[in-house]
Amino acid sequence: MKGNEITAERTESPKTKQEMSGANMKMLEGKKGIIFGVANDHSLAWACAQALHNQGAQLAFTYQGEVLERRVKPLAESVGSTFVEPCDLSKDDNIEAVFAKLKKHWQSIDFIVHAVAFANKQDLEGHFVDTTRDGFKLALDVSAYTLTAVAKAAAPLMTEGGSIVTLTYYGAEKVIPNYNVMGVAKAALEASVRYLAADLGDKNIRVNAISAGPVRTLAAMGIAGFRDMLKYVADKTPLKRNIQADEVGKTALYFISDLSSGVTGEVIHVDCGYSIMGM
Ligand code: NAP
């Protein structure tokens, strides 16, 4: 050791290629990933897609059925995507097929956005206690298990590490009228995020969730009393408003980019602060 020089523990995270080159690159230049859950241009998945595309990411999309194909294809084209495939995530063979095609298309991927949920309409009103066995299975399968299914299928393609982001809601933590079985599914989803993060961390695959405040989308409008919820929440949040979909997109960008390189297994609330209020 020379003079007063002291040795210190490394205090900085490893430099990214972008930081090292000092180039004025976009944050996700050269990154490729797949977005599950675009139904239309109001979808939170679409807000995520736009934020990622704006930072240079290449995107693949899936849709369910012909009606959605007609809506999703033009959206995908508008962000330069040439990979738009059907996929019902409740079917294992659909998941296998889409990842096999993705492997041919790109060889490897860097991220996934999972923005998918479903429950029977009659299970999103009235009392949770009335949930049927079939309704429970369906909601938990589509809204929670599918994250594990896609994480398993994606991991071998994430050869350089990766980031998986899902969408959840405060109804996982506290009782929200009419959210019912979806709250239980979101609780399972958030626990899955932690277990998947633990399992996949040694491959440098990070798994995180965004707990979004209410946004008017197709899925949200299926929850009884959703309009009243929007008004109530806007009144109670510290920021005195509802969130915008693009605020979810910006948080997805944080999770998928190197900005969150040390973060995994987390649930971040993007809810204008609603969840911190006790009264
Ligand atoms: P959305 O636009 O209706 O998106 C939901 C998506 O899930 C649709 O594309 C839907 O396709 C897809 N999906 C349902 N079942 C599927 C299946 N078996 N296989 C593949 N895809 C399936 O509504 P969104 O509000 O953006 O929802 C995205 C995510 O955000 C959901 O997880 C939701 O719970 C979550 N979230 C929403 C809010 C909110 O207030 N909007 C708040 C917090 C969290 P189909 O239309 O074909 O069924």
Describe the protein in words.
It is a single chain. With 279 residues, the chain is of the alpha/beta class. The chain has a single domain (28-273), classed as 3-Layer(aba) Sandwich (Rossmann fold), CATH 3.40.50. 40% of the residues lie in helices and 14% in strands. The protein is built from eight helices and seven strands. The chain has helices at 17-21, 44-54, 65-78, 92-106, 133-154, 180-200, 226-236, 245-256; strands at residues 32-36, 58-63, 83-86, 111-114, 162-168, 205-212, 267-270. Helix 4 packs parallel to helix 5 (133-154) and helix 5 (133-154) runs parallel beside helix 6. Bound molecules: NADP nicotinamide-adenine-dinucleotide phosphate.
Let me know the number of strands: 7
CATH class: Alpha Beta
Q: How many domains make up the 3D coordinates?
A: 1
What do we call the CATH topology?
Answer: Rossmann fold
Overall pLDDT metric: 93
Spatial separation of the terminal alpha carbons = 58 Å
Strand order in the sheet with the most strands? 3-2-1-4-5-6-7
Q: Given the helix and strand composition, which structural class is it?
A: alpha/beta
CATH architecture: 3-Layer(aba) Sandwich
Bin the helical content: 25-40%
CATH superfamily membership, which one?
NAD(P)-binding Rossmann-like Domain
Q: What fraction of residues sit in β-strands? A: 5-15%
**Radius of gyration based on Cα positions:** 20 Å
Shape descriptor reads globular
Q: What molecules are bound to this protein?
A: NADP nicotinamide-adenine-dinucleotide phosphate
The largest β sheet comes out as: 7 strands, parallel
**Helical element count?**
8
